[in-house]
Amino acid sequence: MLGDYRITGRRASDIAASVEAGVGAGALAPGALLPPMRELAGELGVNPNTVAAAYRALRERGVIETDGRRGSRVRARPSSAPRDALRMAVPAGVRDITEGNPDVSLLPSLDGALAAAARRYAQAPTRYGADPVAPDLARLARADLDADGVPAGPVAVTSGALDAIERVLAAHLRPGDAVAVEDPGWGSVLDLVPALGLRVLPVAVDDDGPRPEAVARALEAGARALVVTSRAQNPTGAAVSAARAGELRTLLGGHPGVLVIDDDHGHAIVDLPLYPLGGITRHWALVRSTAKAYGPDLRLAVLTGDPVTLDRVRGRQRLGPGWVSRLLQYAVVELWTSGAVDRAAVARSYGERRDALVEALRERGVPAHGRSGMNVWVPVADETGVVTRLLAAGWAVTAGARFRVESGPGVRLTVSEVALFEVAGLAEAVAAAVRPATGGRFG
After folding, report:
1. For 208-221, what is each residue's pLDDT tens digit?
2. Can you tell me the distance from the alpha carbon of 153 to that of 310, in angstroms, rounded to the nearest whole number?
């Protein structure tokens, strides 16, 4: 069952630590079946309730999963082995388009914004007890949200989009609850959900966002929350259309207790309108990160939602980091008000490259998807083979395994660092690597 590895400990915390250490060291492989609770309790000389508490803690930390009478197993991808760890070494001389980073040439210089923030801080240093959100940041963010039709709600600031999503899920859900998540979708969310002790219910995606029939199945299966990428979906480039938003709102109207999270990380780098889903159910949130348009190291996202959700998020935040640095908030205010980023130009730059690659691939008989943002998704029959052949051709791309649960295989191509003159060569290399074409569905 466990090979040569021996679980030790007499307290629940020690037993859990022993299992987690075995997983982290590779001695307990993904899928390894753990002993039944009573059997392990007998071996360790402890009460079965102690082992049950240890297993419960491991489930909540995303290390193991339990399937009724089939017992408890190490998760196929434990929380100690996130999808981002599935990175390959890129040899020298190979073009690396795997990272998903924005084009550095399109990011604004932070010198002036940080200097302005420092001057402002010198005039009025932040003290304990201050409002966690700078008033002018809240005002500017709320005006932007209003312009995009996002329902009225208070504003919070978090350390990036994933921090916001985690806090919102934790505000309402408990271990064992199910979360409907896009498939293929952002690998960090697919890791976060089980790491919180929650269950992933995969939802199929097409170019217009989550497919209604897949969302309906997840809701009927008991999903307590739905996480949707509004625009620039990673990895497929999907964007929720007006018609799709209408269908999803109708579905959600029949499930008022479901928590809805809109991730609008593509804000300021896409030119498609936003069709938010928030406000249909009792609890909802929409998050906007500054990472793609202003730089990943700013580590700042704006969050809005219903008053109960925001109150819980801000209350728990006060007991942790307290607030996101006012210096960063002041810098973002300066970037927003100075017009440091020409949003239309940024969206146009990514769009030209993305659209050119999708069209070049289709001209070569390779179906590809990329309606918005900086990624193109290519369904393939054999991810490993395609990635290997492209590496030999001088291109490093991302295997779709980082983004999938049940959907079909594919590869992600990030265009943010691909110049227009390189598109034809990249398309030719991809076409040679994937032939024969495998069809145009995500899975």
Report:
1. 999 999 999 999 99
2. 8
Euclidean distance between CA atoms 316 and 171, whole angstroms? 8
| Bridge partners, 29 (sequence order) | none
C-beta atoms surrounding 255 within 10 Å: 18
Q: Is 241 exposed, middle or buried (0-12, 13-18, 19+ CB in 10 A)?
A: middle
Q: Is 70 exceeded by the pLDDT of residue 109?
A: yes
Sheet holding 178-183, edge to edge: 155-158, 301-305, 284-289, 259-263, 223-229, 178-183, 199-206, 209-210
Residue 33 sits at φ, ψ, to 5 deg, of -85, 125
Q: Could you give the angle at the alpha carbon of 297 between the alpha carbons of 295 and 303, nearest 5°?
A: 80
Q: How far is it, in rounded angstroms, from Cα 231 to Cα 274?
A: 7
DSSP state of 417: T
Both tokens assigned to 313: 């998020």
pLDDT at 90: 85
Instruction: Select from 380, 316, 303 the least CA-distant residue to 137.
Output: 303
Please give the mean pLDDT across all residues of the chain: 93
What pTM was computed for the model? 0.85
Sheet holding 375-379, edge to edge: 375-379, 410-414, 398-399
Tokens of 193: 């959900």
- Amino acid at position 211, single letter: R
